[in-house]
Amino acid sequence: MGSLLASRAAVWDAFTTTLFLAVTAGVLALLVGTLLAAMRVSPYAPLRTVATVYTEFLRNTPLTIVFFFFVFVTPSMGFTFAYKVAAVIALTCYTSAFVAEAVRSGINSVAVGQAEAARSLGMSFGQNLAIVVLPQAFRTAIPPLISVLIALVKNTSVAGAFSVLELFALSKRLTNAHSSDVIAILVGIALCYLVICIPLGRLAAALERKAAFAR
Amino acid sequence: MSRQRPDHVPTEHQPSPAGPVVRTGLSLRPGTPSRRVFLTGTVGAAAALTLAACGGGDDASDDVADVDSSSFEEGSTMAKLADAGKITVGTKFDQPLFGQAGPDGKPTGFDVEIAKMIAAALGIKADKIEWTETVSANREPFIQNGQVDIVVATYTINDERKKVVDFAGPYYTAGQALMVKKGDDAITGPDDLKDKNVCSVEGSTPAQNIEDNYPDAKLVTFDTYSKCVTALDNGQADTVTTDNVILAGFVAADKDKLQMVDDGKTFTKEPYGIGLKKGDDDFREFINDTLQKAYDDGSWAEAWKSTAGQVLPTPDPPKIDRY
User: Fold this and answer.
1) Which of residues 137-156 of B touch A (CB under 8 A)?
2) Could you report the predicted ipTM of this complex, rounded to two decimals?
């Protein structure tokens, strides 16, 4: 554990990088994913098709390949991103597909009568979704959404293979420099991930209790 | 379940309490007979395939002289290994020229030849060597836990590592070099790296060297060298740096696109050693003697020529460090 403490400045930098990737990609993925879910239940068929194709394509592609695309393929088409930006884009694209499915499952759990009642009151599709359906949908979607976000935190480690010095990449650098201390370093790095993920799980539990109460 | 034979794929004639083998997706009874039949069949088939895949490919040329295990001191590692008649060797599976696993799962390369020499000196045939893939991060733990007997895996000897494992050798001295796109002469050596995108693998000694000693260079790191080559090809990296032998493998594979800077001149020294359990001095001396013998009788040079020597000139063997 000594070598980990000795390089705590580097660990802190890597920790904040991981956190930055997770938070930025998490917020963006929640937005994009909700939009995708809305598209999937929209009355306009082309929107449904686009959202379905996007979700199925990204949900079923390994994250490394998504990264590969934004790091190596888009530059050859003329779009070069900084490695960190490419990482956020890749993580957002990938995670938003899972968010979309979680939100859609929430939408499906809302009783049809709710949407029908809203429509009979003269609400538009957008109003219906935003005021009536989505607030109820998110309640059911909280546990799967948190699971998606926790997976996202761990998925940020893929960025370490693409020139972003986050926790996992740092663990490789440290284990090489301090090879007598490999296991302690890996345990320390794992703890850093727990520091992010366990509060997320607690948050989920709290939100769930609150949602259950309101119902 | 006595009517099932292990490698028997169920047919429709086979009576089964659960009816025909139709998988309905949501059966919550894990042990239903139909599913078990299905699994056994699959496992049997898979095992058969694996066996078939392992079958061929043993070189007939591996003649190993019989070594009397009693010639080793009783209780020594040599005696134990010779008695067991097998040895577990950790090596790289992804390092062209040194240790690269082919489609049959068996590694080939200079490291592999060195390991075979040591095994032969213990009277162990090449096909009794158990190859375990080691990557940079797990070499020390594998040795410490005894999961491997020796590690021959482009393993640089240094003081930090000597704290936890011992090294025989070195059996080769590599060094850090630079690789650029063919025809690119903007970089002529490590002193031209200022503001250049220098690509290497995260957690490798060459990357650390750039980070520590060439702070003006912009270090770009991926998890594999092949990604660095892609980045070089794309223009996202100006040069790729790591041990000369690794770069040589890439240049050999793509001579039209890649070249070494300054004919592969090296600017560090990376003595490759054979890692073994710390404190096992007898075994270390034994391996050192074996290496020395291979230097003297020319089998070391022969092993080099048949592997890495296909793209690199044959060097003089390095002096063994009997610390």
Assistant:
1) 137-141
2) 0.80
